[in-house]
Design brief:
transcription regulation; Histone deacetylase 11; 7-stranded parallel sheet; disordered N terminus; alpha/beta; 330 residues; 10 helices
């Protein structure tokens, strides 16, 4: 049931051939373009199954549309579009066993927490569900390179912080944060230390498991301690842990940022900052269960970019991560 189809039917990530340009090779901006990464391939929608999970699986397109309506960008010619990440590129982090597990629709259903996915042919799951994740994962890696070159970048997607090298979960199938950091370590001279600032409402246990014991990576994670995933093993990797309670408000939330973020930036002095900027902290989000206003979210983002980019001149790239209120755009 929902098992792997033949390789010919299944649009799984292809092997990178000799003529396939690397992700870093296509991450080249023209002077007029913004360091923003997005593709219409990010969005998920098929057979109404997207309604069975609280995640708004078309939110990435809505963000792009909002940027256009606000006059911030004219269209896709002002940004960069990623291609789909290949299997070989995923294997920089992911084990063969984990990637193979995604050829089972049952396993994918558990990762994305949508049980009906288990009964679908896997070629449909690959094409309609996992392929958008693979585009977003490539977008995160591209954003990392653009941040080094331009000082900042945004991937309108990504932030799959519950996925590690050998395990997915929480609607996260690929470890894009781990991949982006390791790509920078391997391909960009001068990037020796990276900081992950994870301000999604949930603990980022995926990248934490991947970087446990790695002194090149500093993780600042502020999350609701009373919700998923409660991964105590992964918490060992957090260098600065800020645990919140249900219904935390703007005042407490923002004061924690003002107290902790400048201190850890001064302490660790990173070469690059990955900012996982989930909006599931918003009041009314039934999974985050915090009470941050839209104004509080904007102030959060302003504080992060001010401390990292304006005050210290460090490159930063932002991922949109979680957010479970349909129609909310911040």
């Amino acid at each position: 049931m929902g098992g792997a189809q033949s390789q010919e039917e299944e649009p799984t990530p292809s092997e990178a051939g000799g003529d396939t340009p690397g992700i870093y090779e296509i991450a080249e901006l023209e002077p007029r373009q913004w360091p923003i990464v997005y593709s219409s391939q990010y969005n998920i929608g098929f057979m109404g199954l997207q309604r069975l999970h609280p995640f708004d699986s078309a939110k990435w397109g809505k963000i792009f549309d909002h940027l256009q309506e606000a006059g911030m960008i004219k269209g896709k010619e002002d940004i960069l579009e990623p291609r789909e990440i290949t299997k070989r590129e995923l294997q920089m982090v992911h084990t063969e066993e984990y990637l193979e597990s995604l050829t089972s629709s049952m396993n994918v259903a558990m990762v994305v927490e949508v049980p009906p996915v288990a009964i679908l042919p896997n070629f449909v799951v690959q094409s309609k569900l996992l392929r958008p994740f693979r585009f977003q994962t490539a977008g995160t890696i591209m954003a990392g390179k653009l941040a080094i070159e331009r000082g900042w970048a945004i991937n309108i997607g990504g932030g799959f912080h519950h996925c590690s090298s050998n395990s997915g979960g929480g609607f996260c199938a690929y470890a894009d944060i781990t991949l982006a950091v390791k790509y920078m370590f391997n391909h960009i001279d001068g990037v020796k230390k990276a900081m992950i600032v994870d301000f999604d409402a949930h603990q980022g246990n995926g990248h934490e498991r991947d970087f446990l014991g790695d002194e090149r990576v500093f993780i600042l994670d502020m999350y609701n301690r009373l919700i998923y995933p409660g991964d105590n093993f992964a918490k060992q990797a957090i260098k600065r842990k800020v645990e919140l309670n249900h219904h935390t408000t703007d005042q407490v939330y923002l004061e924690n940022i003002r107290r902790h973020l400048p201190a850890v930036l001064d302490e660790f002095d990173p070469d690059v900052v990955v900012y996982n900027a989930g909006t599931d902290i918003l009041e009314g989000d039934r999974l985050g269960n915090l009470d941050i206003t839209p104004e509080g979210v904007m102030e959060r983002d302003r504080l992060v970019f001010t401390e990292v980019r304006k005050k210290r001149g460090k490159p930063i790239f932002m991922l949109t991560s979680g957010g479970y209120q349909v129609g909310t755009c911040t």
